[in-house]
Each structure stands twice: as structure tokens, then as C-alpha cells.
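Sample pair:
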Amino acid sequence: MEDTIAAIATSLGVGAISIIRVSGNDAIKIVNNLFKGKDLTKVSSHTINYGHILDQDKIVDEVLVSVMRAPKTFTREDVVEINVHGGIATTNKVLELLLTNGCRLAEPGEFTKRAFLNGRIDLVEAEGVMDLINAKTDKARDLAINQVSGSVSNLIKELRQSLVEILANIEVNIDYPEYEDIEVMTIEMIKDKLKMIKQKIKEILDKSQNGKIVKDGIKTVIIGRPNVGKSSILNRLLEEDKAIVTDVAGTTRDIVEGRITIDGIVLNIIDTAGIRKTDDLVESIGVKKSLSLIDEADLILFVLNNNESLTKEDEEILKKIKKHNSIVIINKIDLANKINIDAIDNDNIVMLSALNNEGINDLKATIKKMFNLEQIEQEDYTYLSSARSIALLKQASKALDNVEEGVNNNMPIDMVEIDLKDAWNLLGEIIGANYSEELIDQLFSQFCLGK
């Protein structure tokens, strides 16, 4: 991190302002060499300075330059931000001048990576920055802000501190084995603290399922036989004619996607090809894709025709979706009832008519109830949301299960200590107290270039 990096921090295109960010030991000096105005090497930190960017003696643009000196910056390095008039040619020209005068083009996420490596933020806060950039709803933004502010990290740090206290007592027990009362005290303390720590982890994991929903939304797949009204239901949910609707079986041959928001939670909806046996090669590929999406979905909307009896294929799909979050939709209630609803083994059945736009609100209400969306609305957002951190917390919980088993089976205290240290290290990986270079490179490569 000895070199100075630069990148465009705003979306490239026509606009009022574009910002080019520079960070590193030579940031102020390099920009000053291109700047006509005050001597930037002598101005106070956290000031905005008016002037012009020059290409030798030619004015490139009239600019405002923000100078921020280390360590009170995002990267804890000297940072300069050049505000230029928005436009592709001007923005690229200023970046080109920076690169030809000693800067290196920043890698994706490198500014945030430097903030992490320099101790300005931890990994949970870094992931929060990325989530904040990608937030599509107010709830997703609130969740990301809690991560960026350090509220979520503090939960993990408190758990690690509790484990450190247990480990310290174990070390005393190992160092002074002649005192039997110390061992008794240590084991009793482990049992009490372990119960508290495991309960706290369970609470975080339970809430973190909501965090994943807030961040990523609910992947919703609409399945069913041809002509039961899947595409019509998608169009009603989206309130637009996204999917083609005809009476011809097999019209939908590939997936059609759309997005709606219910109580601040995004539903990523996929309308699939009608599931049936077919000799049509293209349609059969669509059917296979429809079936494969069942296992990937957070929610399955299985559509049946009120005007038809259950078929063998319907019964097979009902069995297949039983272990998933699913809602059975009886569509076409405007037609005569021929389906035996009592034969449908599912706790969530919604009756509707996509043609007459009846029952769509009932469907939304059922989804809200299934995923406790109203409860999410009332909760704070101090929980994990990334698959990486949730997986690590589950591993830490498993390590503590091993500790509990060891204590109950009177295993030697130094053996119990191994699993405790495993849990402590896994919690450290969540916040980046210990990490691999490969993980860091992979995580920050997902960021945009100027962040």
C-alpha cells in the first residue's frame, strides 16, 4: 500500500458533478502538481479549495479540491477528492492526468480495502459499505447503516470478550493444577457463561435470517402446469404486462423475472415455464429449469386451476414443495369449481382470479405472514446479513456445542480449551480480526471501482 491510487468515485456519464478520489502518501503532492490555485501542500486539512486542473499550461476544468490529511480520513491515508464538471471526457481526462503523474488506477474496492487494512473499519463494516451502495429499499439501507456504524460488530466483539474471560480462567487452571477448587470453579463458570453465549448466538442467528431477507429479498418462483395463469399472476403482482399471456400451452418457455416490494422487502419473482411432458426441445429445457428452481427458491407459488381436477403431475409437485416455504394458489375462481381443495396438503392456500384481479391482496398478506414482515418492520436491524458471516457464526455455535459436550463428559480442561479457541477464532473471522489474503481479495473485488 505504498503507492497512491486514484479512481472515479461517481457514476460515469453526463451530470452536474463528477468526483475523482485519490488516496496515498503522495496524493496531495500529485494533485498539487496539476492544480492552479492555492498550494495544496500548505492548506489546512478538511478544506475545499477552488482552482483549475491544468494539462501543462492548458486549463482542463474549473474544480473544487477537497484535501483531507491522514489519519482522519476513510483510508487513514492522505485523501484528495477533485470535484469536476460532470461529463465523460472531462472526468476521464483528469483521471488520465493523475495516472500519468504518479497515481495507479485503484482496483475495485481498494479504497475500502485500505480502510480495513489500516484499521479504520472491520470486515462487517466493510460489507455494510457494499450493502449500503447496493440497498434497494429503506430497510436494506437501515440494515447497512447498522453494519457501517459498528453496531453489529460490537455484538461479535462482546461474544469474543466473554470467551476470552473463560479462556483466561482455563489458563489459570492449567498453570495451577494443584488447586482443585480452581478446576471446580472453572467448570461451573464455563457452564454458566456457555449457556449465556449460546443463547446470544441463537438470537443473532434467528434475527440474521431476517437480515438476509432485508438485504437480498425473497426469491419467489411461480410454478404450475401450462395455462393455469402463472404469467397473469406475475403481471398482477407487478402491476404491468411483463409476461406474455395467451391460451396457447407452452407460451412461457424461459423464465420471466420481475420485482415488487412488500412492506419494504423486495420479492424477486420468477415466472417459469409450465411443467408438463413435452416433445418440444426448447419447452422441455424450460420445464427442467422450472423444476431446478424449486430447490433454489425462498418461496414457491404453486398455481392450480380451480376449473380442473388435480392431476398426477400436480400431486407430485405438491409432494416436492412440502419441505419448502410454499403457497398454493387456486386461480380462476371466476370459473366453476372442479378442484378438490381438501386433497391439497398445504397450510397456505390462496383463492384468486388473476383475470378479475381478485385475491392478489390476500396473496400478499399471506406472504407477509409467512415471513413475519410486520415483525421485521418493528425490529431494530442490529444483525448479520452476509452469507459469509452467518456461516461463520453457525460454525462458532457448533464449536461451543462441542465445548458443552466436553464439559458434560468431564473431558480434560485443556481439551475443552481447544474448541473454545476455535469458536473465538471463528468469531474473529467475522469481523476480520484474523483473515486470509484470498478472502480479503475476493470480498473487496465485489466493490465498485471508486469505493
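The radius of gyration is 29 Å.
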